[in-house]
From TrEMBL:
Family annotation (InterPro entries): LysR-type_TF_proteobact-type, LysR_HTH_N, LysR_subst-bd, WH-like_DNA-bd_sf, WH_DNA-bd_sf
Name of the featured protein: LysR family transcriptional regulator
Entry-linked SUPFAM superfamilies: Periplasmic binding protein-like II, Winged helix' DNA-binding domain
GO biological process: DNA-templated transcription
Gene3D superfamilies, sorted: 3.40.190.290, Winged helix-like DNA-binding domain superfamily/Winged helix DNA-binding domain
Transmembrane spans: none
Domain HTH lysR-type: 4-61
Length: 297
């Protein structure tokens, strides 16, 4: 294979991944016209079209999809071997891309990265905050963070935090107007602040448990957010009952701006895990991060 052939194939994968010549060109550091020329040259050499182009989108053809299936394992293998060569360096280098939900990024990832990064100036860490269950292989992430109960079986998973617990909370002013709920069923008579799930687009059903009895409650109210911090702010402002991670509301509870309800229905559950593909050789940077995050109780 000629050197330019490999470059053309990498350019094709970039366009296929980004579904955009503009974003792919920026990613590769070339002009859009140069990238278009590269793809036309590759298509002419192969004798079939790789991409379907419209004014709004770019998508692989059937032939393009088959080429992607052929190229992807080879490129991933090259990436892994290049990362392994990084072990010859004195310190880890390169970029780590990690996807995590807002709460995990704020409470677990950032404190560890804040301590770690100053000692490794050649290491770059990109955190993609997203509550959806991303496919870290197809989305080109090095690792992701999920709750223990939501892990895929073909992933290596490392515990990075203790058990978690949710808290149902409301402002004293709200509870002065509305008697506190005594059972999950009482929530139907309350204004509650909803969470929009990014993965499925639906509203989160509150998961409550007491003495082994699990109850899922769909609540109603005037406000819907996709951020737990916004939900907390709305609860403090008296707009209803919120259901958020317990550690997030320690300060408001201590200050008395929020009060717990249904505490006996909020039992602990498995905490966060860092996960990554089992078939991918771990880079020095990822190995360093795993050790920094590993929860040892």
């Amino acid at each position: 294979m000629r050197r330019e052939d490999l470059g053309d194939l990498v350019a094709f994968l970039a366009v296929a991944d980004e579904r955009s010549f503009t974003r792919a060109a920026a990613k590769l550091g070339v002009s859009q016209s140069a990238l278009s020329h590269t793809l036309r040259r590759l298509e002419a050499r192969l004798g079939f079209r790789l991409l379907t182009r419209t004014t709004r989108s770019v998508a692989p053809t059937e032939g393009g999809e088959r080429l992607i299936e052929t190229l992807r394992p080879a490129i991933d293998d090259i990436d892994a071997k290049l990362a392994a060569l990084g072990q010859l360096r004195d310190k880890p280098a390169g970029t780590l891309r990690i996807t995590a939900a807002e709460h995990a990024a704020r409470s677990i990832l950032w404190p560890a990265i804040e301590r770690l990064l100053p000692g490794y100036p050649d290491l770059t860490i990109e955190i993609h905050v997203d509550a959806s269950l991303a496919d870290i292989v197809s989305d080109r992430f090095d690792a992701g963070v999920r709750l223990g109960e939501r892990l895929d079986k073909d992933m290596i998973a490392v515990p990075i935090g203790p058990e978690l617990r949710m808290a149902a909370v409301a402002a004293p002013a709200y509870l002065a107007r509305h008697p506190a709920p005594r059972t999950p069923q009482d929530l139907s008579h309350h204004r509650c602040i909803n969470l929009r799930m990014q993965s499925a687009g639906g509203l989160y059903a509150w998961e409550l448990e007491r003495d082994g009895r699990e109850v899922r409650v769909r609540v109603e109210g005037q406000l819907i957010f996709n951020s737990s911090m916004m939900i907390q702010a709305a609860a403090i402002a008296g707009f209803g009952i919120a259901f958020v991670p317990e550690d997030q509301v320690v300060a408001p509870l201590a200050a008395g701006t929020l009060v717990r309800v249904l505490e006996e229905w909020c039992e602990p559950f498995p905490g966060y895990y860092l996960y990554y593909p089992s078939r991918r050789q771990m880079s020095p940077g990822l190995a360093l991060l795993v050790e920094a995050l590993r929860y040892r109780g």
